[in-house]
Amino acid sequence: MGYVDWEFAKTTGRTLVPAGPTVSQAEAEAEVAAIRAAAATARGPVADTARMETPGDAPDALVVDRATWIAVNADSMGAMLDATFDEIIEKRGQAPGPTAQAIGGKITGAEAGALLAFMATKVLGQYDLSPGGTPTLMLVAPNIMSIAEELGVDRDDFRAWVCMHEETHRVQFTANPWLRDHLVSEARTLAVDLAPDAERLHELTGRLTEKLPELLREGSTGLADLFTTPEQREKMAALTAVMSLLEGHADVVMDDVGPAHIPSVAHIRARFTERRKGAGAPDRILRRLLGLEAKMRQYRDGAIFVRSVQDTVGVDGFNAVWASPETLPQAREIEDPTAWVRRVHG
Predict the structure, then answer these.
(1) Is 130 exposed, middle or buried (0-12, 13-18, 19+ CB in 10 A)?
(2) Distance CA 247, CA 256 (A)
(3) Directed axis angle between helix 178-194 and helix 230-261, to 10°?
(4) Cα(331)–Cα(133) distance, rounded to whole angstroms?
(5) What are phi and psi of 135, to 5 degrees?
(6) Which residues make Cβ contacts (< 8 Å) with residue 19, sequence separation at least 6?
């Protein structure tokens, strides 16, 4: 048994997550077919706009419900983290006993399942890197339906807009195969480095109540502010810079593709940006603790970086960013795109 019971995480997630909008079987089938069609239609325009060559045999996008999204992500998290846990235990030289491991696996599985249930109601789509498996582009049908309704936007246009964003992520990774292995490796290394020992964990737990107001302040990265050292935060910033690049680039491409293919793209962008700001108080608190507010800033900061670089050196000049790990933006360069241009283009 692993250190996290991922099957229990799936069960917990399925139990806790709301099913989504209530629709008839015919309506559900029609929505799935429409999302599949939008995903297929997005391929050509995204590749042309991004000016990136991708393999022609990429599998079709999977249109999933929330429970399936939870199951896929639990499997990916297990593939990502189980080897990491082994490395942490080896580093410390002491493994928990079978009973402690079994109980701990259930507890951490329940925690992981609860987190996945929360996230499963928010995610519109995802390019799952699937460490050790086959990467998959997923589109979450109930969320696309419910958020289009919530925003009051054209449903056909909204489907197309979401698919443009997620297809850009597929293009990023399939056109640059090294990128997937690089991100998985960096994330695993960071996870090992971030894991506190028992003494450190006891100290941090004692400080949690004292530091809670600070963790909720605007600009906080959530619990990471408490559980990391300055050196670790620097490593996190480096990985965050890459995530900002990926999310910002997807936002830029989806909006650049939009006018020719999505008549109401400007209205959708305005309504969606407004929605990102408008979560209720409990939702905002949980997002801030989990660092999801910081993720929202990734879209904004990354898009500003991409736009600035493209304005300076064009789309082809920007695409030098995908050449190797060395050409990815550093943390300071996300906020200073001209520094990246000077470093990479001279």
Answers:
(1) middle
(2) 14
(3) 150
(4) 29
(5) -60, 145
(6) 65, 66, 142
The three-class DSSP label of residue 18 is: coil
Distance CA(3)–CA(327), nearest Å, equals 36
Q: Could you read off the pLDDT of 318-344 as tens digits, one per residue?
A: 999 999 999 999 999 999 999 999 999
For residues 4, 6, 9, 13, the Cα torsion angle rounded to the nearest 10 degrees is 150
Structure tokens at 239: 């990985």
**Residue 25 burial by Cβ neighbours in a 10 Å radius (0-12, 13-18, 19+):** exposed
What is 57-98 written as a DSSP string? TPPPPEEE-HHHHHHHHHHHHHHHHHHHHHHHHHHHT-PPPH
Cα–Cα distances (Å) from 33 to 27, 37, 140, 153, in that order, read 10, 6, 13, 19
Q: Which CA distances in Å does 274 have to 25, 136, 151?
A: 32, 29, 9
> Higher confidence at residue 197 or residue 23?
23
Entry pTM: 0.81
Cα separation, 322 vs 246, in Å, equals: 10
Q: How confident is the model at residue 167 (pLDDT cuts 50, 70, 90)?
A: very high
Condensed to tens digits (0 to 9), the pLDDT of residues 64-85 reads: 999 999 999 999 988 887 766 6
Mean pLDDT value across residues 163-172: 94
Using an 8 Å Cβ cutoff, are 4 and 82 in contact? yes
The Cα angle at residue 38 between residues 59 and 143, in degrees rounded to 5? 95
Alpha-carbon distance of 181 to 27, in angstroms, equals 39
More confident residue, 218 or 61: 61
Q: What is the DSSP string of 87-149?
A: HHHHHHT-PPPHHHHHHHHHHHHHHHHHHHHHHHTT-SEEEE--TTS--EEEEEHHHHHHHHH
Phi, psi for 188 (deg, rounded to 5): -65, -45
State yes or no: pLDDT of 33 exceeds 50.
yes
Separation CA 117–CA 257 (nearest Å)? 32
